[in-house]
Write a structure and sequence with these properties.
This protein is of the alpha+beta class. Helix content is 30%, strand content 17%. It is rod-shaped, with a radius of gyration of 21 Å.
Length: 70
């Protein structure tokens, strides 16, 4: 009985490691997830794609430059 539990625990750990140590998150929306610095977003005005860290955020909207804000 204990041997079976040990085998299942090891198999579970191996599967967890195989999946990269990340389990599925249920009930979370796309807004709940944080964006990485290298994620591309579209400029609200001109449509150019820039990374999050290069973008300028004004009122929750992404802009590529100061010229697009005005």
């Amino acid at each position: 009985m204990i041997l079976k539990l040990l085998i299942f625990a090891i198999l579970g750990l191996l599967i967890y490691r195989f999946l990269g140590g990340k389990l599925a998150t249920f009930g979370k929306t796309a807004e709940d997830k944080k964006l990485d610095d290298d994620t591309l977003v579209e400029c609200k005005k001109c449509g150019t794609y820039v990374t999050i860290k290069e973008s300028i955020i004004v009122n929750g909207e992404y802009y590529c430059s100061k010229e697009c804000i005005s």
